[in-house]
Amino acid sequence: MTTTDIAAIRAVLQHSQDAWNRGDGAAYGACFTDDATDVTFVGTVYHGGAEIGRAHQALFDSFLKDTRLVMEILDIRRYGTATAVAVTRGEVVKGTPKKLGKLATYTVVRDVDGRWRIAAVQKTKHKAIMEAISFKFQPATRPSR
Questions:
Q1: CA distances from 87 to 57, 132, 138 (A)
Q2: What is the pLDDT, as a whole number, of residue 1?
Q3: Among 120, 5, 2, which residue's Cα sits nearest to residue 52?
Q4: Sheet containing 116-125: order of strands
Q5: How many domains does the chain divide into?
Q6: Which CATH number is 83's domain given?
Q7: pLDDT at position 127
Q8: How far apart are CA 113 and CA 69, in angstroms?
């Protein structure tokens, strides 16, 4: 993976975070492909950048008003010349997060115009207690890294 591609992938994730932080649904949706899939933390599935942007604008105007998306990229792996998977840890907050307790897996693709865009994202909450119980009673479930 070239440093240019890594920078472009990081940039599209940063653009999505910036759009969220401005409460700009259209700009948020523009970070996604026309046929993208967004599986939200609550399990809602949105399809396509336009729908993702429209729905998030409604959220930014209500439940998510004045929130910030805090995101840390944990890993980016490239698959072929036009696909990458990024794993992030983050949180949606109104102040300073105490911890980054949500994980998201992004599939990012080089779109027809050559720009990297999000083709899919799936978000989940990290459940540390359940994870610790699993590791204690089934140590083989612990990841190697």
A1: 24, 21, 25
A2: 67
A3: 120
A4: 45-47, 32-39, 116-125, 102-110, 83-93, 68-79
A5: 1
A6: 3.10.450.50
A7: 82
A8: 27
Per-10-residue mean pLDDT for the chain, 145 residues long?
Answer: 91 98 98 96 93 97 96 96 96 92 96 95 89 89 82
Length of the chain: 145
Identity of residue 47: H
Range of the domain at 74: 3-141
pTM attached to this predicted model: 0.90
Phi/psi at 60 (5° precision): -65, -30
The whole-number pLDDT of residue 106 equals 98
- For β-strands 116-125 and 32-39, DSSP reports them as parallel
**SS3 readout for 91-110:** EEECCCCCCCCEEEEEEEEE
Structure tokens at 53: 């942007």
